[in-house]
Amino acid sequence: MAELDSKALEIKKYRAYTELLVTAFGWALSTILIKMYIGTVPPYHLLMGRFVIGTLFIFALQPKNVMRIKKQDLKIGIPLGILVFGAYSFGVVCLKYTSASKSGFLVSLSVLFIPLVDTMIKKAAPSRWTIISVGMSMAGMSLISGINGGGFNFGDLLAIGSSVVYTVYILALDKYGKYIEDTLLTLIQLAVVAVFSTLAVVFFEGFSMAYIKEALIPILIIGVLCTGMATLCQTRAQKIASPESVGILFLGEPLFTLIMAHFVLNETIVFSGVIGGLLILAALVIAVLKKI
Fold first, then answer.
1. 56 band by pLDDT with thresholds 50, 70 and 90
2. Which pLDDT value is given to residue 248?
3. Better pLDDT: 291 or 112
4. Which residue in 181, 180, 287 sits closest to 241, CA to CA?
């Protein structure tokens, strides 16, 4: 019986890892599409559009979920949604000042922050494989920081800010998100980000339907695949996967971004960046095989 339980848990873990990689790919795709349009469409219009569509998509999956929302769900879901808004705000605005491939790797610095903060909270030493994975990923990050041949800039700082906020989000979701049904929590979080993004549009950019029409197709793609589905996958997966493995598996995002940025956006990739990417890929593989 114990053997069956162990196998069932292992299957759940691999499914969680797959969902996290799907999330990472969704984020990478959204980074590329946003980078393509951010020169003509203001960042908060893009953010508002993707989260409104994402919210409607999750609502359409289970419309009756709205009737099931309780006060306790809002107490957990609203703060989590605010953290998501903060992380995405930094992550989108940074693309005005830095390259897609570079931002993808800097945003993933949460791979370092998560185990460090989690260790301090739990007052327990990280496992040997966690240390090895984090070390390899940070070496990769160091090589990747000058991936396009440029230096550190304001956009890079915003990308790091996004990773800090997202670290807090992942740890908070791990602690509090397990007690709310997946689609319900996803709906609350996306709705909160949609509201805050709309307010940001009104106060900082001035709403214009022309911007939404100009980027309607990418907004629909990002909203459904890269926001609705990706957030649902992450919310569900984090009930099984550890915060450390979540952080390291999300390193798939900069790798996906790197590949697409080179072939779709024609961004220049230097040799050291390729080596850094391979180190990060190795850390990703260790995270899965050693089940950290």
1. very high
2. 65
3. 112
4. 287
CB 157 within 8 A of CB 18: no
Q: Tell which residue, 93, 44, 24, 74, has the closest CA to residue 197.
A: 44
Which structure tokens are listed for 226? Answer: 């890269």
Return the pLDDT at 154: 86
Where helices occur in the chain by DSSP H, the ranges are 2-37, 43-61, 65-68, 71-93, 100-107, 110-122, 128-144, 154-176, 182-200, 209-214, 216-221, 230-237, 243-249, 252-264, 271-289
Percent of the chain scoring above 90 in pLDDT: 33
Contact 253, 27 (CB under 8 A): yes
Lowest mean pLDDT among 212-221, 231-240, 246-255, 273-282: 246-255
Phi, psi of 215 (to 5 degrees): -115, 30
DSSP state of 125: P
Instruction: Provide the pLDDT confidence category of residue 4 given band limits of 50, 70 and 90.
Output: very low
Crossing angle between the packed helical segments 43-61 and 182-200, to the nearest 10 degrees: 150
Rounded CA-CA distance 84/271 in Å is 33
Q: How far apart are CA 219 and CA 234, in angstroms?
A: 20
- Asked whether the beta carbons of 165 and 94 are under 8 A apart, the reply is no
CB–CB of 158/87 below 8 Å? no
DSSP 227: I
Tokens describing residue 95: 């693309």
